Amino acid sequence: MIGGAQARQGLSRFALPLCVVLLAVAPLVLSPFRLGLLAKYLCFAIVAVGIAVAWGRGGMLVLGQGVFFGLGGYAMGMHLKLAEAGAAGLPDFMVWSGVEELPALWAPFANPVFALAAVVVLPGAVAFCLGLLVFRQRVRGAYFAVLSQALAAAFVILLVGRQGVTGGTNGLTNFSSFFGLDLADPAGQRAVYWITAAALVVVFLVARWVVRGPFGRLLVAVRDGEDRVRFLGYDPALVKTLVFTGSAVAAGIAGALFVPVVGIISPALLGVAPSLELLVGVAVGGRFSLAGAVVGAIAVNYAKTVFSEDFAEGWLYLQGGLFVLVLVFAPRGLAGLVERAREWWAARAGGRVGGAGGSGGAGGVTGAVRRSEGVAG
Predict the structure, then answer these.
(1) Which of 2-16, 141-155, 197-211 has the lowest mean pLDDT?
(2) Contact, 78 vs 90, CB < 8 A?
(3) Cβ distance 54 to 244 under 8 Å?
(4) Which residue from 163, 199, 246, 356 lies 20 to 30 Å from 116 (Cα-Cα)?
């Protein structure tokens, strides 16, 4: 079992650098169109990392991440539209809607520093206030899931109902530049891809540092025994609120990057169905594994791209069936299957080397501990 543990540590040590290298060489082998698709998938992967921490480690079934994705996306979109506004100083859709004066809500977003800060602060502030309100009342489980889902639905209604301010159902579109980068130029598109890939790596490393540290162990304790943690003097509501806020900030960053990558941010991308789609990717990859969540998000969205071309109406049913199958037959997702295969191979190798000695029992305990805490890598 020592050899199995060493192999597992070696694999973990080289997996992240290998993934970084693959992300680095992608622009060299992919066409601009395919590179744009990959950048879009990476945006969803950033959201998935936050969901994996909140759901896998914290036990919070977050069904409203589309809200925070949208807050970050609209904050960035508003700045880009103002940066491209003509002599009237109004975005094109406002001119078409007959708006004669820039709404006060929009004015601060002309400042790039304010816009970048809003990408993080807006989702974080909304999540923090909502989290304190909800978790102080000890709302958990299905009740929290339904509440977060209702928040996503209400957010979409708000955006659609303010045509002159938010662009209505069309949202914000037709972005030509991103902080000096020409989005129609392949060089500009590659630069946006680099920024997105770098953001994913940073978010992943921060999340891994959190879940592997003392706070991560406290979060698991809150998930498994909230009342016992409260008895020990900790504040479970604050712990859950901080994690919920962190996942919202990750979603906001992803939404902001989605705008220059895809060129649109609209209510259709933020409602209940898109939020559930993000959750499916995490479930497929493995909600207890950050790496699994990233792989699952990319894989599910790639499958959506492939199947939607020929089976646009059937994709939703296929996605729902996939979600149910994973929860029933592989609740730990692909990462869980890989971990079980590792343990089986390590046990088989240990049996060949040392027989059925005491090391096998130690390995079993190690595996049990890893399964109880979740796979952090």
Answers:
(1) 2-16
(2) no
(3) yes
(4) 163
pLDDT in tens, 171-182: 888 888 899 898
Cα radius of gyration (the chain): 22
Count of residues making up the chain: 377
Question: d(Cα 276, Cα 354) in Å, to the nearest integer?
Answer: 47
| Mean pLDDT score across all residues of the chain | 84
Cβ atoms of 271 and 169 closer than 8 Å: no
CA dihedral 57, 63, 66, 72 (to 10 degrees): -40
Q: What is the arithmetic mean of pLDDT over 237-255? A: 95
Least confident of 51-65, 192-206, 249-263, 350-364: 350-364
Chain position carrying tokens 């071309």? 309
CB 55 within 8 A of CB 331: no
Cα distances (Å, whole numbers) of residue 107 to 81, 252, 309:
11, 20, 40
Question: What average pLDDT score do residues 45-51 get?
Answer: 96
Rounded Cα distance, 211 and 206, in Å: 9
Q: Which residue has the higher pLDDT, 103 or 257?
A: 257
Tell me the H-state helices in 225-289.
226-231, 236-262, 272-285
Structural domain boundaries in the chain: 15-270
pTM of the model: 0.87
Distance from C-alpha of 320 to C-alpha of 138, rounded to nearest angstrom = 29
Which residue has tokens 């692909």?
334
Q: Other C-beta atoms within 10 Å of 208: how many? A: 18
Highest-confidence range of 31-45, 144-158, 269-283, by mean pLDDT? 31-45
**Which residues, 6 or more positions from 374, have their beta carbon under 8 angstroms from its beta carbon?**
56, 57, 211, 220, 287, 288, 289
Distance between CA atoms of 251 and 261, rounded to whole angstroms? 15
pLDDT at position 70 is 92
53 within 8 A of 247, measured Cβ to Cβ: yes
What does the pLDDT look like over 70-81, one tens digit per residue?
999 999 999 999
pLDDT at 323: 81
Report yes or no: 3 and 221 within 8 Å, Cβ to Cβ.
no
Cβ within 8 Å of residue 222, ≥6 positions away: 58, 59, 229, 234, 236, 239, 240
